[in-house]
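yo, EF-hand domain-containing protein is done. seq:
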Amino acid sequence: MNGKIVASKTTEDTFRPELLNPFVHHLELGTTYEKIKTALFTILLLPIRVIIICLLLIAGWLIAIVGLCGLPEENLREKPITGWRRKLTGLVCFLGKSTYTAGGLHMVVKGRQATRSEAPILVTAPHSTFFDGGIIYVTGFPSIIVRRESGANPYIGKLINFTQPVYVWRDDPDSRQNTIKEIINRATSSLDWPQILIFPEGTCTNRSCLITFKPGAFYPGVPIQPVCIRYPNKLDTVTWTWEGPSALKLLWLTLTQVYSYCEIEFLPVYTPNEAEKRDPKLFANNVRNVMAKALGIPVLDYTYDDCRLMTRAKEMNLPNATTLVEVQKLRHRLGLDQSNVEENLIESSISCKYSMVTILQFADYLNIALNDPLLHQLFQYYDTNSSGVIDFREYLLGVLATSKNRNVLDSIKIACKVYDSSGVGRLSPEDFAKILNHTLAIRVDEAMNVFQQIDKTGLNYVTFEKFQSYAEKKAEFASLFSLSKEKKVKSKNGDICPEYDKKTE
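structure:
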């Protein structure tokens, strides 16, 4: 099933039989009929739909230009638009909904949308696709949270600016705090601002669960209206997750369907109690529970950072990459992330002496009581075939390579210690192949080739220092010695991530 990872379970322990991975979506045209239909509609239907959609988008863009004409940007942030400009938003909404209809996506609305006086903020979930943007037209053009760069775009930026969005300024170190202040000011203002629409998950999922809600929408402590989105289609051509089809492929497959459905349900307004007003996270969690019940799906304490961890682990080809988020959460509950037990173990070469360990040895190495159920659950994630033993090296590499924001070169250095069967830093061809395979996702045969290029003297071993010296001279390893794009953005703008911005707009 999409987004589910099978985990083994013993008769003694009550572990979950399945771990939901909300950041994965698999999409294939499974039947010959689907493939033939898609091919025919690509030729016959797709061009017509694209032309109509483009015309409608241009019309909406022109209306937005008219609505913004003569209106300084400062005014958009200081007070709501009124008069004839406000009336134009209704026309933009009509054109926006017509765009979706032209693409074959029919939006079905359930429940009643509350007014701004009843609920200044609309909280929408699950967020699973760029098609979710259609809710803006259904809800009457509410204000959204958006990057300032998007508003500067000469095309889509006009439509975005016409919603009077709350901007996130990436070059402002206080961006998050200022965004929260602006949300509070708008939600509690006596002026007739549009409602604010927020996707509190902060990233796209596959709708298998509701992940952690960010508290931004809940800081004002005002009544909010939960809005649920469903896509009850036989073939899911809309879900856009971290691991799955590209946006272009999803757009193509959706536009070549006869029709698709998007169901938008307005739930009753949720009014916070005094405890929730004081604690935005409590408020967020309680609203999430209400929405999960209405959707009939579980809640899972995943965040966008967990998404990045999963992706990094998969890109590195780390052992048990798909369960490392759960593993790190268990380590936190066991206090292992503070005790540095694992780091001390690799310095003492325990990992290379006892690669295969039992639950008794596992408990001894981590200095945790054998009867602790969390320890057994941690062990179970690596004992995938219920053999009673795990490769302790895989555990150490996985948890250490994905903690403390280590870069890939640091992870390789750790892997060299973990897989050093000699115990003195001399890496055999087999050790070296495992290291490159589980940190750079390099195939074993390619790793062996790199080993031979480093070990030109025929010593039959290499060291981390020799690999580093070799890699510094090779273009294919240049990324190991420079900051990644993500890290550059983080160092400049706090922890605003470019992928986050791309996925949530």
